[in-house]
Amino acid sequence: MEAYNESLSLDKAFYAEDIDGSIAWARANKNAGILTEKEFKEIERGFVMVRKEWDSDSFQIKPGVDERLWLRKKLHQIEDHLTSLLKVIVSRAENDIDLLLPGYTHLQRAQPVRWSHWLLNYGACFARDLRALEFVIQELNYCPLGCGALSGNVFNIDRRAIADELGFKELCMNSMDAVSDRDFLLKTMGWGSDFMLHVSRIAEDLCIYSSQEFGFVKLADAYSTGSSLMPQKK
Fold first, then answer.
1. Scanning 20, 23, 210, 232, which has the fewest C-beta atoms within 10 Å of its C-beta?
2. Model confidence at 123, in pLDDT bands (50, 70, 90)?
3. 58, 106, 193, 228: which one is catalytic?
4. Annotated catalytic residue: which of 9, 58, 227, 228?
5. Active-site residue flag, 106
6. 3-state secondary structure string, the chain?
C-alpha cells in the first residue's frame, strides 16, 4: 500500500513552487491579522533556508498550486525555445530564398519548390503550436490557493494578493472546482501531442533528405549518430 500511495518521490520536483506558495500563504495570514509580523518573518526565513539547503522530503505538497506554478514555468521555457526556433526558420528562409528542390508526394517527385517554402511549411506548424501554447498557459494561470480542501477558508484571506504575489492572472472562482480541476494538465498533454507530431514530421523529412538517396541536407556530426557495423550510415 505504501508503494501504491506514495507520490513524494514525484512531488518533490515541485519543492521550489511549494515554498513560493507557502510563503505567499503565510503573508496572506499575516495581512489578515492571524500571524504577527515577527511570526511571518520567522516562517519566511525558515522557508528561505529550506530553499537553500533542501535535501529532504519533509514538506507537504499542495498539488493544485504547485502543479500550476511548475507547469507555467516549464511551458514558458518551451515558449521561449519555440519562439527561437521560429526565428531561425524565418531567417534561414530569407537567406536561402533562391534554393530550389523537388517537392514530393508519396515519396515521388511532384513539383519544384523553394527550400524556403519547405522551411516555412514547418514555420506555419510551429507558429500554430505557439498560439496554442499561449492559450494553454492562460488556462492554467488561475490561482487555487485559499480554496482549502473544498469549501474555501474563514480567515479573511486576501486571495487576490496571493495570486498577484505568485504571478497568477486570475482566481479560481469556485473552491470545489479549484481543488478537483486538472483540465490544465490534459490540455498540456494534448498540446504536447500535437507539437510532437510536427516535430516528428520535420525530423523524418530531414532524415530522408540527408540520406544518400536524396542528399539535400547534411546533418552536423554533433547531432548525428552512426552504425558500428555500417560506418557509411549516419
1. 232
2. very high
3. 106
4. 227
5. yes
6. CHHHHCCHHHHHHHHHHHHHHHHHHHHHHHHCCCCCHHHHHHHHHHHHHHHHHCCCCCCCCCHHHHHHHHHHHHHHHHHHHHHHHHHHHHHHHHHCCCCEEEEEECCEEEEEEEHHHHHHHHHHHHHHHHHHHHHHHHHHCEECCCCCCCCCCCCCCCHHHHHHHHCCCEECCCHHHHHHCCHHHHHHHHHHHHHHHHHHHHHHHHHHHCCCCCCCCCCCHHHCCCCCCCCCCC
